[in-house]
Amino acid sequence: MAHRATAGRRYLRAFVSGFFVAVPVTVTTLDRLAYVARVEGASMQPFLNPEGGSDCDVVLLNRWSVRNYEVRRGDIVSVMSPKNPQQKIIKRVIGLEGDFIRTLGYKNRYVRVPDGHFWIEGDHHGHSLDSNSFGPVSVGLLHGRASHIIWPPNRWQRIEPSLPVNRGPLDTEEEEEG
């Protein structure tokens, strides 16, 4: 009987020590590699949440791919909101540092994106709190890049970078001619 109690304690000790190793490893892995997030609201319609209502897309946010703060025009990214640091927002990258952007209601009609910043916008311009409200966003607020839609199952897909029509940096040759 004493042998069984000792074996039971050994198994319990092994489980507890394994648990205390597994949890930090899992949390660190998720913090560094990727995690999932619900996309709520209409700001990224029609690409995300095309049905609207209570149906929300769930995306895989790749943290590893943005560890060096490198993003491309057209990427959908998660950033800490410049207006509310407790909130993360998901928007599309329209311009990178050094780009000239034609804004959609910002205080200046044209903006040069400063070094260490990028310009983000929601796809549904009338319903988006984005760079047109708060200006260029520091790359330090970058949290992850949306790489896949993973829910609902009928929308499973890889997210490829793409810019909406007539959005993106201005062509400097057009500016010089005009």
UniProtKB/TrEMBL annotation:
A GO CC annotation given for this chain: mitochondrial inner membrane peptidase complex
InterPro entries, alphabetized: IMP2, LexA/Signal_pep-like_sf, Pept_S26A_signal_pept_1, Pept_S26A_signal_pept_1_CS, Peptidase_S26
Membrane topology, record value: Single-pass membrane protein
Cellular compartments annotated: Mitochondrion inner membrane
Keywords recorded for this protein, A-Z: Hydrolase, Membrane, Mitochondrion, Mitochondrion inner membrane, Protease, Transmembrane, Transmembrane helix
Family of the protein in this entry: Belongs to the peptidase S26 family. IMP2 subfamily.
GO molecular function, one term: serine-type endopeptidase activity
Active site per UniProt: 43, 91
Subunit structure: Heterodimer of 2 subunits, IMMPL1 and IMMPL2.
Entry annotated with the keyword Zinc-finger: no
Gene responsible for this protein: immp2l
Transmembrane segment boundaries: 12-30
Location (main, coarse): mitochondrion
UniProt name for this protein: Mitochondrial inner membrane protease subunit 2
PANTHER family in alphabetical order: MITOCHONDRIAL INNER MEMBRANE PROTEASE SUBUNIT 2
One of the protein's GO biological processes: signal peptide processing
Gene3D superfamilies: Umud Fragment, subunit A
Pfam families in the record: Peptidase_S26 (PF10502)
Residue ranges constituting the Peptidase S26 domain according to the UniProt record: 14-102, 108-151
